[in-house]
Amino acid sequence: MSAAAERSPQGAALAYARAGWPVFPCRPGGKEPATRNGFHDASTDERQIRDWWRREPDRNVAIATGAPGPDVLDVDVREDGSGFPAFNKAKRAGLVDGHSAIVRTPSRGMHLYFAGTDQRSGSLHGQHLDFRSQGGYIVAPPSRTAGARYVVVSHKPATCGTVSWDAIRRLLDPQPQADRDHAPHREPQRNAGRHADVGRLTNWVAAREPGDRNFPLFYAAKQAALSGQLDGACVEGFVAAAHRSGLRGGEAEARRTIESGRRAAEREAWEPQRPFQREPEREAG
After folding, report:
1. Do 224 and 198 meet the contact criterion of CB atoms below 8 Å apart?
2. Cα angle 20-103-119, degrees, rounded to a multiple of 5
3. CATH of domain 2-172
4. 94-96-98 Cα angle (round to 5)
5. Tens-place pLDDT, residues 79-100
6. Where are the domains of the chain?
7. What is the rounded CA–CA span in Å between residue 268 and residue 262?
């Protein structure tokens, strides 16, 4: 990874692909996919990769996570908090050993790369710690967002262990039986009812007209959160879909709307259970 990060975006993309990691382009200076289907278009085909970056050499590089790509632990830093306290707790418990690389992100957070698995991506809301595996992607060096680059700070090619997201989640977000016994009527029903089809919701958001404003994105985020699927990868997919639909306000507005949907789902989850609303009808054609 270290050598790949020192190359041009196209050169880095080709190096990642030669290592067996599927890649795809994101828009210059951003995290939004530059292909119609985002990480679903990720490829290791050199001809396809050269064609993507020949059109726009400054495009960022994204890697589809989960085997055959890497698993990545994302320690985020935002105005409302940092993921380092949660990460340090997991580190003290010996749950994040074996990473092959550490990348400093533009937010001054970090990505830890591990061998890819078939785990699901996930997120610990409020602790600013995300896990990217199947169904997700990460922006990789030498990409640049918010005026700063993704930089490799540590690379140990001989080390390529795996990480257990379930173990990290159990450590950082335990749900003791005693708590459930004291307040059984207050336990959220996050996975009750019909399972939301996130892929269908994402496509539905992307197909909205610009004049629809924020409601479709809010609705989709809320339904995904109610079914326990609004993780980091899902959020990025919704952001990209909102961009394709021409949502006003750009990425920042999309993320605010998604967060509003998450909060609405959290409020509803604590209320007496009621049937899910019907999901949007499938688009014709």
Report:
1. yes
2. 55
3. 3.30.2250
4. 100
5. 888 999 999 999 999 999 999 9
6. 2-172, 186-269
7. 10
